[in-house]
Design a protein that fits this description.
It catalyses: L-threonine + hydrogencarbonate + ATP = L-threonylcarbamoyladenylate + diphosphate + H2O. This protein is an alpha/beta fold. The protein has ten helices and 14 strands. A hairpin with a 7-residue loop joins strand 9 and strand 10.
Amino acid sequence: MTRPATARLYRGTPRNLARLARMLRDGELVAVPTETVYGLAANALDARACRKIFRAKGRPANDPLIVHIHDRAQLDLLAETNSAAERLARAFWPGPLTMVLPRRSIVPAVVSSGLPSVAVRMPAHPLFRQLLRRAGMPVAAPSANPFGYISPTSAAHVRAGLGRRIPAILDGGECPIGVESTIVDLRDPRHPQLLRPGAVSRRELESVLGVRVRMPTRRTAPHAPISPGLLSRHYSPRTPSQLHERFSAREVGDSRVDEAWIFVARPAGVSGENIFWLSERGSLREAARRLFHTLRLVDAQRFKRLHFERARGGGLADAINDRLARAAGRG
């Protein structure tokens, strides 16, 4: 097919969904909305199509992809399941939870970066689910942005980053969650590990599984990542960035005007064109939803340095802090 100068935006009409499904079946790339962030989708069972994802993003071959499904039976096609995976699927699918399981041979090695495992998720976004059903196959879909840069939460973000490298974007509006899915390693169901925090919290996982969910340490973390989002620097603005436990009013007030300060909640007694916040009242749900949009907005203003304040609490605070730490190169 002839590729336009920049990616074409498609509304979620039945006719457009049918066309985009054909494109996926033909081995083309389509950027898609999910409840977490926008993904760059390709037929997960077509190695050639999946290699296009790596080329379009500039993604290293050792960083695995997440496979997205619309039907529970597809999980058995892709992975060797266990009782822990079954319980989590019943509790959280469709939704923002990815499970890492032993890979079946039908999954091309390129999808899992040659590893014997595969990361699988059943998304909840209604447009993406319609597209998956029409395509009739699982799709691999990492975030639809140049590798390492801030994840996209709108079709405009995708077009700005990959518009000249891909043919099509399904416009589903802004992503309602705004941070990537929780990833849990269930290769050994007796010892699950939380690889990446997200909207499904560690406490929720433990409540369903009835066992402690471990956090990987530097000693136990795999040399080669077994899922996306495990690199120490990721989701990163181009502007040098620093993560702080807390800001003081004096510290911010005495700062240079060419440095930006990003709070979780709107700060009292501090104002200026270099002051930003993720939520008016400190709502973690709103902060997560606006996180990547705000980082992109501030990154475009050519400050010399960005300063982030850690979110307080657990759950989504863990997800926000994980992204901020990796944005500052401290993951």
